[in-house]
Amino acid sequence: MKKTAFSLLPLLAAGLVGSATAATEADVENSFNPYKAGMPTFPGLAAGTVINKANADQFKDVLGAGVHKLIKDGLFEIKVGATTQFTIAKSYIDATKANLNKAKLGAKPGDTLTGYVAGRPFPEEPDAKDPRAGEKLAWNYKYGVNWGDGAIISPFYWKYKNMQTGQVEKTIKYDFHFLNFMHRTKDAPIPEITPNPSGIFRAIYVKAHEPADLKNTQLLIQRFEDDSKLDDAYLYLGFQRRVRRLAQGQVTDSFLGSDLMIEDFEGYNGRVSDMKWTYKGTRNVLLPMWNHNELKLAADMPAEADGYKYVDFAGQGKCFHEGTWQLRKVYVLEAAPVNPNHPVSKRTFYMDVQLGNLNGANEIYDRKGELWKVFMVGKSQAESHLPVNKGAGIGIDDAFSMVDLQSKHCTTGQFKGQVDPKKNPPNLFQVQNLRGGD
Q: How far lies 340's CA from each of 65, 344, 346, in Å?
């Protein structure tokens, strides 16, 4: 027995033994269809229920702590919708099945995975006894569907608002582009875009069009397959007409005066190794998820040429998107920065089990451990959105609210997300493109 136990130590040290049993195809089915046995329920909760200051405590157990506080303080109310399936692309599910149990954790938390090919690396239910369960969920997020193999948000309106008065201080009109260079499962070329000598896994390119003082401001973020490598991030300021490389600390500064830092993008826009990840349990929680075409849409913004209308905002300062919330199965995941100088002490995520995203209703805590901001990104069914998104196999980010409780301020976002590979040529994600972006 001693010899057997000793022989297992190298495997344990390398993170190759993460659970008692290997993941099965049944785990894959449950991961992508957590409602196979029926939709989650909670006493007194049904489609059409309105949760406000008066009854917030009644539903506290199905609300994130930050959302509960906002409702309890009377800043907004939510309307409950029926829980629905958010179907994931079949190609991604098939890749998960084909590569089951190939991905292995590195020797220490944050080390790049070995053996990963494509799909969800760890589709099995997280085990509370597994000290690296949170890290596995973080890897699932990194290699998740997010915007699929590539997409564009165009236009993307950010509004800076005084939450107490409702005054809109600034509106910025952006384009946001996302592209996976590796581990692609749906859009050609599959499985990767070549040449890719730097080993870029994913890139984000941002360009501002309005207002005039920010026109042609551009941001490029390149994330590497090797998680030990720092992201490359470059900012082009139109009025200076030069590209400058961002230092690591600048991704945690306010981005162009908003309530978001670059690290906040998509819920979490950083490396797995930048955080200590802790799985805090599985719950049923209300998340902002809806059918775009069934909402009462914004009347104070002109429709796009194709007739597309944006999600509306209401509540205190018009800081809160008006869409329905669904009771969803979530993994509660806590991320504490490894860097002691980070402005955040921890982030709490309510990871939707089906989508694997981290941006439904996040809490961000300051260095003192006090609740600082709540980030809520509403998602639409792809089939109830633009025609180009039908069959995309992702949840379409549709509107966001980043609420700073301490400064009584918010930044809101209204999306026109389009899963259209033709609008994401790889050369768009090169530094040279910034210099020629005017």
A: 24, 9, 11
